[in-house]
TrEMBL record:
Keywords assigned by UniProt, alphabetized: ATP-binding, Cytoplasm, Kinase, Nucleotide-binding, Nucleus, Pyrimidine biosynthesis, Transferase
Family as reported in the entry's similarity comment: Belongs to the adenylate kinase family. UMP-CMP kinase subfamily.
Reaction it catalyzes: dCMP + ATP = dCDP + ADP; CMP + ATP = CDP + ADP; UMP + ATP = UDP + ADP
Species of the source: Coccomyxa viridis
Taxonomic superkingdom: Eukaryota
Gene coding for it: g11159
EC number(s) per entry: 2.7.4.14
Residues reported to bind CMP: 190
Binding annotation for a ribonucleoside 5'-phosphate: 135, 156-158, 183-186, 226, 237
Listed name of the protein: UMP-CMP kinase
């Protein structure tokens, strides 16, 4: 038998195994209709059952489908080998690793995106910028997309339903155990809805503390063509940050979960304080 034939046989064997795993997920899911799982179109789901997302990863990683894959599943069903990450924060599940989420908060222009990029480069975590997800969504041309465009232009906070649905979808697609959620939650509605809907609580909150004058200067120099980086909207965003987002930071601070970073320094100096916090978390990753 030639090497080529042997390789082809291996490929076919893997494909057969993959297909049977997907079939067993679907079959098990249909037999246990206790919760709804929407693996490929979570924006259509009312509530994402994170305890079931292990199955979602298995299905999503094995099948590339344009249409929504909808199924029902019970957490009691044995998970297939490929379901490596349990997105439930309810606790560790045998054989599966717990999702670890870090909220990255700070005023507009405090350097959240810049520091997240460095963390991704060094540690390979999944970086989800709520603002980037919303900006992509606004290009969809849907009524929701248009509403998002208008709210961003006005510096207002988009309703949780839209943002959480985008975050859920991205977490599912990303399929990583450690996730940086950048720029979310921005108010109490965001925080409470995210926790209620996903059951996820952050490991900690990275808070980039920066004077407004410094942030203003950075934003005016950002040059990314954003509709909200103009002085009028920047001032509105500062006000929204102080009134709506600071209470969230205070909420987590009272729980001892905030890691406050002085962000008014060179990016490298800021990163020198940020990296050990995330590095420490790496040692808990399974
Ligand atoms: N520590 C820093 N010092 C100077 N400029 C910075 C620093 N961090 C980020 N910037 C710049 O400031 C602007 C805003 O940074 P960004 O990371 O996009 O902030 P945020 O995500 O908090 O809005 C960008 O143009 C970025 O290059
Ligand atoms: O969870 C979020 C994140 C962002 N936004 C909107 O997106 C804008 C830009 O947010 P981003 O985090 O991208 O930038 P920042 O204001 O922190 O520079 C905000 O002013 C809000 O209008 C929102 O409504 N909810």
């Amino acid at each position: 038998m030639t090497v080529r034939t042997r390789l082809l046989q291996q490929v076919f064997r893997s494909l057969r195994q993959a297909t049977s795993r997907v079939e067993s997920v679907s079959k098990a899911a249909l037999e246990h209709p206790t919760v709804t799982l929407v693996a490929c179109a979570p924006q259509q789901s009312k509530r994402m059952p994170w305890s079931c997302l292990g199955y979602g990863f298995a299905a999503a990683s094995l099948v590339t489908v344009a249409s929504p894959l909808e199924a029902s599943c019970s957490p009691a069903v044995a998970a297939p080998q490929t379901a490596g990450v349990d997105l439930s924060n309810a606790g560790m599940t045998a054989g599966k690793a717990k999702l670890q989420v870090i909220f990255v908060l700070g005023g507009p222009g405090s350097g959240k995106g810049t520091q997240c990029a460095k963390l991704v480069q060094e540690f390979g975590l999944l970086h989800l910028s709520a603002g980037d997800l919303l900006r992509a969504h606004m290009k969809s041309g849907t009524p929701d997309g248009n509403m998002v465009a208008e709210m961003i232009k006005q510096g207002q906070i988009v309703p949780s339903r839209v943002t959480i649905s985008l975050l859920e979808e991205a977490m599912l697609k990303g399929g990583k155990q450690q996730v940086l959620i950048d720029g979310f939650p921005r108010n109490e509605e965001n925080r409470a809805a995210f926790e209620a809907q996903t059951g996820i609580e952050p490991e900690f909150v990275l808070f980039f503390n920066c004077p407004e004058a410094v942030m203003e200067k950075r934003l005016l120099g950002r040059q990314e063509g954003r509709t909200d980086d103009n002085i009028e909207t920047i001032r509105k965003r500062f006000k929204v940050f102080m009134e709506s987002s600071m209470p969230i930071i205070n909420f987590y601070d009272a729980k001892g979960r905030v890691r406050k970073i002085d962000a008014d320094r060179d990016p490298e100096d800021v990163y020198a304080d940020v990296r050990p916090l995330v590095e420490a978390l790496q040692s808990f990753a399974v």
